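[Meeting: bench + compute handoff]

Bench side (C.D.) handed over the final construct sequence. Compute side (W.E.) agreed to return the predicted structure before the next meeting so the bench team could plan truncations. Sequence as handed over:
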Amino acid sequence: MRVKVAVVGAGAMGMNHLRVLRDFNEDEIELVGVADSLDANLQRAVNRFHVAGFSDYRQMVERTAPDLVSVVVPTYLHFAVASHLLDQGINVLLEKPMTSTPEEAAALIQLAHLRGVKLAIGHVERFNPAIIEVKRHLVAGELGQLFHLHARRLGPFPPRIRDVGVTLDLATHDIDVMRYLADAEVTRVYAETQQRIHATHEDALLGILHFANEAMGMLDVNWLTPTKVRELSVTGERGMYLINYLTQDVYFYENDYTPTSWDTLRTMAGVSEGTMTRLKVQKAEPLRLEYEDVLAAIRNDCAPRVSGEDGLAVLRVVCRLSETAARREAAQVQQAVEVKVEL
């Protein structure tokens, strides 16, 4: 089945989507159009990828009849664009963060179910081969009980980001990955934020997540560091995985003691440094793997790996982090948001 694909948004990330789509075989997809309201963005995309360009995404949909549309616009526009596409019965890949609010996200999920189409959320780190490899080892029980996840997502301020802060723009990556690796929902959060450079939003976050399975997560995220850092450590009973998102390298630092249970280890002096191993990772571009997953979901009529429900769960955590940062007290995370929408 050849899938007709279009893209809304031709900024920096939109150009990445177009580049990846252009690399697919012609018998897999047909890139039928790109839409952007900014003429400079649109002309750059049209000239580079030789694809039909439209200043209005609604006109693009009418003329090209796509099977899948990737929505790569600023977050505050996600709901309006995605709801229009879903209502037309079109499958949607919606960049993260899913929407500005959990209520909007819930409405999109309901609309996708009503129209019988796929809604995938672009939490692209879920498709990072390093994360996939660590998940495989966790599922096999090789780490034992999971204790702690620590994410460091640091870098300089990106001038293109104006409508959101680091919690919604950056921390959403690691919240989603932590939920995926821990295989549990967040039940309690605490956060502190700073606003040093951004005109209207926070540009630094230190957040603590408590999961239903008693694992803990630490978010260290900012736009204040003059070098780009993308790391995640996953610590458990038998050692620690250290993941570099950028290089897709994974190292396992073994706990030298190998008891049959953690209770046995607790009677000793503590953990001990063992062998460090570099895991073999089959490196690939995460965005390409994300598209392969969405296309497979459409062809096989199955759920995408990162669903609208996943995007909503992340937004709930983001909202609670923002609330607790404002109040400076811990907040419980609501596990269900019921929204009734008249369509």
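W.E. noted at the follow-up: The CA atoms of residues 257 and 269 lie 11 Å apart. C.D. will use this when planning the next construct.
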